[in-house]
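User: I'm putting together notes for a lab meeting next week and I want to include a structural view of one of the chains we've been expressing. I don't have a solved structure, so I'd like a prediction I can at least talk through. The sequence is below, exactly as it appears in our construct file.
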Amino acid sequence: MATDDQQVLVTGQADAPASFRVPGNGQIQPKAVYASFDGTSAVGDFLPALKIISDGGETVGVYPTETAVVAGASADVSWFPGVKPFAQQAAPLIKGRQIYFESEVGQSIPSGVVTALVFSTFLSAPGSVPPFGPLPGVSNPLTFVNFGDVLLNLVATWQAGNYDRYVEVNAPAPIEGVAVLNRKRGSLAPDDTIQVVEAQVSGSPTIPTVVTLNVFQASGANKTCDAKLVLYGLPYL
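Assistant: Thanks for the context. Below is the predicted structure for the 237-residue chain, given as structure tokens.
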């Protein structure tokens, strides 16, 4: 089932700590928060963290990653409600950012054609256990062949302009009996220049789960798109 959620672009670039205040008497229920941390000027290792403060000024919670980012390095981090460290009796996939894909820089997306993202970079943090069987390299679709649940966070950055576009996670094969099609769609700049979509999938060696990561645009001309995919989860091997 396709879902359309409102995305809030907090800031383009800002020194830490970057912040967002809910305007007026509004209320929000965050489904995910994404931030890119540039540690080029960091003098020491650091833990990316999300801090939530109530309207009364009291700290509700602070949510750091489990692993530090070394000085001089950078990290793309996402927070999801309900995600927490898993028990250590099984090999964990979650340790901050563990499985990470990056698409071709400036991949050309033709108008009116649903296009699979082409990944050019694959990084796996030490100690992570991928839920694919053999490492998939930079493949798309992804095939999940081990038992386990995985959270996918896909971020697409489009060429600026006002035109219809979307990014989606598509798994037509049943996942616990339910097909997955999560899509973020919009047509305005700057609100839809960056689009984020999340999905949860389950792997199985009996019936492998195949997930395709697609983009689409209808501007009437080719447009460029960069994308990053981060996977979190716990395969039960």
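A couple of points you could mention at the meeting. Residues 85-97, 131-136 have pLDDT under 50 and may be disordered. The longest strand covers residues 223-235.

User: Perfect, that's what I needed.
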